[in-house]
């Protein structure tokens, strides 16, 4: 009889834990907009980054960063998102800098709540 009670109690406890959290319910998982066709190139004394995104809310923006070692990044541009009339967005960031040595560039997709993800990291 004891062996039947323990699994029932454990199952009920697991259901309780997964459906509640101290102070409220579990927040929904955020869905990030798709970013694709990322390109980076150097034209004369400028570095140009271009990318596209789909189904992007106005709460999303981008931070463009560069690094000489690929570890410590410095921000050089903020690009606001979500301002297209349709569901497709094209972005372009230009930085006046001639890459004389290998330089790393990355694009961070940031939500207004402070969460972010790295959508591209490339070197030139």
Describe this protein's structure.
This protein has 124 residues and is mainly beta. The protein has one domain: Immunoglobulins (Immunoglobulin-like, Sandwich). Helices cover 15% and strands 48% of the residues. The protein has one helix and seven strands. It has a four-stranded antiparallel β-sheet with strand order 4-3-6-7, with no helix packed on it. Strands 1-2-5 form a three-stranded antiparallel β-sheet, with no helix packed on it. The longest helix has 18 residues, at 2-19. Residues 18-29 have low confidence and may be disordered.
Notable traits:
124 residues, mainly beta, Immunoglobulin-like, four-stranded antiparallel β-sheet, three-stranded antiparallel β-sheet, 7 strands, 15% helix
Describe what is shown at a glance.
By secondary structure, the chain is mostly beta strands.
If strands are numbered along the chain, what order do they take across the biggest sheet? Answer: 4-3-6-7
**Content of β-strand:** over 45%
Binned, the helix content reads: 10-25%
Number of domains: 1
In the CATH hierarchy, what is the class? Mainly Beta
């Amino acid at each position: 009889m004891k062996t039947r009670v323990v699994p029932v109690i454990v199952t009920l406890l697991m259901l309780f834990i997964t459906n509640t959290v101290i102070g409220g319910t579990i927040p929904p998982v955020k869905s990030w907009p798709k970013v694709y066709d990322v390109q980076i190139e150097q034209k004369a004394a400028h570095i140009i980054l271009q990318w596209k995104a789909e189904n992007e809310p106005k709460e999303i923006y981008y931070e463009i960063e560069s690094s000489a070692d690929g570890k410590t990044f410095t921000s050089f541009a903020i690009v606001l998102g979500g301002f297209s009339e349709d569901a497709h967005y094209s972005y372009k960031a230009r930085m006046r800098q001639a890459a004389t040595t290998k330089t790393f560039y990355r694009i961070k997709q940031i939500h207004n709540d402070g969460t972010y993800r790295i959508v591209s990291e490339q070197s030139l």
